[in-house]
Structure formats: structure tokens, C-alpha cells
């Protein structure tokens, strides 16, 4: 604020709370003057009533009256110091606020007077001792944005609690932001600049990660197309060889494969579209960050930084992927109704299918902490059989009713395959089970209770369900392969030696980790003493 050409200075007419020219000034008993609004608000925040200047305490809240003489002087002073802005007659980058008529280009702005000056009108600030103390900066437009809207003072501090700029008056720092950490603008600027640098460095990395994810998705789509082409070609050979009655089955098969592929491609396209949108958003953000990082206007920087503090909402892509559609069993299910005429083709199909699922082999090791007390496990954790002796063991994970055991490994997504040797066994029970199965009491062994298993004894081969699914007894069954597609809800069993599919449970719902499940059953007088053995996959069979 410029000073009037009088013997009085602005300090003579300034409230020590808001630091502005008095408005309705009142005088305390100790002789100090304040705006009525300022001292009233100040005392509203205090437990005891005291003078903000000399700290004199008052027993009761003083009843203050407006000092009419000082009020008139302050009003006269206010009218003499206000410089009315003149419109620009000629365009300039920042016009001089003092020029009358044609405004000249300002060369400096004063942060005390909140006025911009041309070279001529700047001269008093260069020669008058009191004005030389004023803070001059490069010409700035919209100087009113640098002032506190409530108290009409320079914004020089930053409240870290409310994340806003404040002025240095008592109302801002003592009343409005009482107990809040307040720091100079420059200090907060440096902190936010450091944060901005981190954001600026982080955005390109996120863009690169999303470009890599797009590449992964496109590679998956390409692989899916190849798988679909291969599957359709194999199916076409089978159905073409069969004429007439299989044409309908071939069309249904092709449609199934195409729908799986379409679903995968659609998901991939949606993800790519989302990734590209995030890249566009992040690119725009990068541009904004770069522009902001070059500004030297502390206030503009901090006010704009608030909109950049939180990054645009983006998805965590680390776990997102497009899985190739699974065609395991698709063609086989299309040929179930033609079993008698398709036996030869079915055998070829099952052999190829088994080779595909064997690629999902996992290495599992039996966990002794889950083993029934009569079970004996091999040192390598691959074999289990009835040892005939009850061991006093106690573990919450241990089976207490069924002579069963689980491996250490569990699976919560994707596909996995393992093989179990059942050679020389007269009874066994194996498959997969969910983590929460009842291990202590007798229970139904069905998908409803968490079991997807095959049961074998002298009466035949059964998939345990409600009701049980009885399966053809396979002579010479020596090794059983178990394949699970967690996401598709599929559990399939194979006769590995004969290269034949035994049974598949489809439409399963898995909501928790799955474990391979083994039960070698009890031995009786030396019979059924052979162990169940988790065997490595031999894909050359």
C-alpha cells in the first residue's frame, strides 16, 4: 500500500492484529487501539481477556466503544492512500498502476504496496529510505491473488494442516490457524518441488509399465489366435472324417472355440483401451507437471500443486493379465454322444489333450503336519502308505478321521497338473480339496464339502459326488493324472498309461486355495500296502 503525502505514516493508523488501516477502531484501558472486529474475535478465542500488544489482563471483558476521532482520521488516511487503477490505453505485459492516461509497461511490482510501477514511478522506491525497504519483484499481474482475502495482507506463510497460504497477521496465525504448523512459503515451495520431482520421475515409469502390459496382452492375444487356429484345425480333421452325423457337432465345437477366443480378445481389447486411456491421462499429467516445475511463482505453484497432489486414478496392473482360453476337453465333450464311432479319434484326441495339460506340471511335496497318525511318508515327501502303527501326534492341520495327507503347496489361480502312481493298490482316494475341509470328523466327500476326488476299490471307480458318478473300471490302471483349471472351474482325471480321459468335473466354483489330496487307504493283512507315489511327468510316454 502506498503512503499518503502527509506527516502521518500507515503504522499510525494500522491495527496490530490485522495489520490493516483501522476499521471501527476501539481503545482498551491500556491505551492500545484495534479494529472492533479484530479484538472481538481475538477475545472470543481466549480463556482470559488480555491486550494483544502489552498482555495486560482484564478481570472482565471490557465494554469497548468506537474511538470516533481515530475512526475519522483512519477514514481520511484510507482515502488518501488508495490509488485507483486506471484502464490501459495501450497493451502492455504488466501495466503501471500509477500512470494516468497511457499506461507504461511496469518494470517492478511492490509486494508491500501491491502496486506495479513503470521506471518513472518506481523512482521513489529507489531514493526514499523507507520505501527502499519494500520488497520489489519482477512485474506481476493479479497482485490481489497474493493477498489474504479475509485480512487484505500479503500471503507469506503456509499452513501445513489445512494446506493453504496465510498472511502474517494475528488473526490468521493465532486465531484461524491456532496450533497449526505454519512455515514460510519458500520452505513449503522447496518441499513441494521435491515431491513434484518424484511425481515427474514416476509418470514415465508408469507409462512404460503400461506399454509393457499392452505388449504382454497383445502377445497373449496372438498366442490365443494360434491356439484357436490349431484347435479348430484339429477339430476340423476329426469332424470331416466323420460325415453326416458329426457335422452338427463340428459346428457346435467351432462356435465354442470362437466364443472363447472372442471373449479373450474382447477382454484384451477392453484392457488395451483402458491402458491407452491411462497413458493419455498420465501423459497429460506429465505435461502439467513439467509446466508447473518451471514456475517460480510460489503462490501460483502451491495453489496449482493442490490439484496435482493426487495422481489420476489408475488401476494396479501388476496382477492384471489376459489368460489364453482353455480348450482342454472342449472337443472331447463335443464327441461324447458319438463314443462308439469315435473311439479311435477320441484316443488320438485324449493323447494330445494329455500332452497339453502335462505342460502345467507342478512339483508338490507332502506335508507331514497334515498326515493321519498312521501314515508313513518318504523322506522326499513323494510317497505315503499305511504304516500300521498309531502315532500320538497333535496338530490342528492333521487329518484325524481319514488316512489322508495334503502337500505343502496350494493353488489359488491358473492351471496345475500332477500325477500319482496307484500301481499294485487295491483301494485309494485322490484328487484335490479346498483348504477349509473338515480334517477331524467323518464327512461326505463331495464338491459341496470341498472334495473333487476319485475313489477306487474292488467295487469299481467312482467320482465322489451327491450322487456318486460311477465310471467304467479301467483294467491295469497304474497312474492317474489330475489337471485343474482354477479359473475355468475344471477338474479332469486321466489314465496316464492308456492316454485316456477318465472323468471331468466342470462348472466348479473355487473360492479358496486348492490342495492336491492323497489317501492310500488302509492295508489289510499285507494287501494294499503299496504307497501312493507322486511321480514326475514323462511326456514321452
How would you concisely characterize the structure shown here?
This protein is α+β, with helices and mostly antiparallel strands. Helices cover 34% and strands 17% of the residues.
Largest sheet: 7 strands, antiparallel
Structural class: alpha+beta
Strand content is 15-25%
The strand line-up of the biggest sheet is 11-12-22-13-18-19-20
By DSSP, the count of extended strands is 22
CATH-derived architecture of the largest domain: Sandwich
Poorly predicted sequence stretches spanning 5 or more consecutive residues:
1-7, 82-92
Spatial extent as radius of gyration: 42 Å
Find the CATH superfamily of the largest domain.
SPRY domain
Q: What gap, in angstroms, lies between the N and C termini?
A: 95 Å
Domain count: the total is 3
- Total number of helices: 10
Shape: elongated
